[in-house]
Design brief:
Length: 272
C-alpha cells in the first residue's frame, strides 16, 4: 500500500514518521480507478463480467428484500402479505429464467426452494399437488383469507401471479370467497327483531316523545355475500387498518372475520 501511494503521490523528502496514514483505506478509496491500476492493484478492479454478475445478483435478490420487509413488521398487518409475496417471487424468478446469463443455477435453486418451503400455498392455488395424507407447509387457508381481506391485495394477486389457466384462476378466486363466507357465517351474530306487540309497548312507554320511535325494519343490514361483493369492488390498495376502521359498520360480517384473521403474525420472530 505504501508503495502504491508513493507512486501516485511522489514526494521530494521522506517523512520521519512511521507512515501509518498511508495504510488508511479511506485514502485508497479516494484514488481514481486509473491511479489504483497504475499503483499495481489491478486485481481490486472488477472485470466487465464481474460487474454483470453482480448486477444479475441484485436483480434476482431485490424482491426478496422487499418481501422480507413486508413480512417482519411488528406494528402492521403481515400475514396478508405471505401469499402475494410468495406467488410474486415465484413469478419474478420464472420471468428471469430466459434473461439470466451467469446465475441461472441460482435462479433455479431459489425457485425450487421456494416451491418446497411454501408447497401448501402452491397447492391451495392449484399450481402444485401433494400426496394424499401429507400436510404441506403453509397449507392453512388462513393465508388465503388474510390476503383477500387486506384491501392492499384483495384478490388482485390471482390474475397476474397464479400461473394457471383462466378457468382454474376463477376456481381459486371462488374458493377464497367461499372460505371467507364460511367464516362469516360461523361468526355471524343473531339479531333480535322486535315484533309488532313489542313495538307498540315501546311507543306507549314513558317519556314526552316515546311515541316517536321508528318501527324496526325486519331486513337488518346486508348478507355476508353482498358485503363481500361490495368489499371487492371498493378495495383498491387502501391501508388495511384504516380501511377496516372506517368500514366496520358497513361491512360488519367481514369485519369480524378480518380482525380475527389479520391479527395472526406472518412469522413467530423477526427475520434476521
Amino acid at each position: 500500500m505504501r508503495k502504491a501511494f508513493s507512486v501516485c503521490f511522489p514526494s521530494e523528502q521522506e517523512d520521519d514518521d512511521d507512515g501509518d496514514h498511508l495504510d488508511d483505506p479511506e485514502l485508497w478509496c479516494d484514488l481514481t480507478l486509473e491511479d489504483q491500476q497504475t499503483a499495481g492493484h489491478k486485481e481490486l478492479s472488477f472485470t466487465p463480467r464481474e460487474w454483470n454478475l453482480l448486477k444479475e445478483l441484485v436483480d434476482i435478490l431485490k424482491p426478496f428484500g422487499e418481501a422480507t420487509d413486508l413480512t417482519q413488521g411488528e406494528k402492521v398487518v403481515t400475514i396478508s402479505a405471505v401469499v402475494p409475496s410468495i406467488l410474486s417471487l415465484n413469478h419474478h424468478l420464472e420471468k428471469l429464467k430466459p434473461q439470466i446469463r451467469f446465475l441461472s443455477s441460482l435462479v433455479r435453486s431459489l425457485q425450487a426452494s421456494l416451491n418446497k418451503r411454501f408447497l401448501g400455498i402452491f397447492v391451495n392455488v392449484k399450481m402444485a399437488r401433494t400426496q394424499d395424507g401429507i400436510t404441506a407447509p403453509y397449507s392453512d387457508p388462513v393465508y388465503l383469507k388474510a390476503a383477500a381481506l387486506d384491501p392492499s391485495f384483495s384478490l388482485l394477486w390471482v390474475e397476474p401471479h397464479v400461473l394457471v389457466n383462466r378457468d382454474i384462476k376463477a376456481e381459486v378466486a371462488q374458493r377464497v370467497k367461499e372460505l371467507i363466507l364460511q367464516d362469516a357465517a360461523e361468526t355471524e351474530q343473531p339479531v333480535h327483531l322486535v315484533d309488532e306487540e313489542e313495538q307498540e309497548d315501546l311507543r306507549e312507554g314513558e317519556g314526552l316523545f316515546a311515541a316517536y320511535h321508528k318501527r324496526q325494519k325486519k331486513d337488518v343490514g346486508t348478507t355476508p355475500a353482498l358485503q363481500l361483493s361490495h368489499y371487492l369492488d371498493i378495495a383498491e390498495g387502501q391501508n388495511t387498518l384504516l380501511f377496516w376502521g372506517l368500514n366496520m359498520k358497513t361491512l360488519p360480517s367481514l369485519f369480524r372475520v378480518a380482525i380475527r384473521v389479520l391479527a395472526v403474525p406472518a412469522s413467530s420472530a423477526p427475520v434476521e
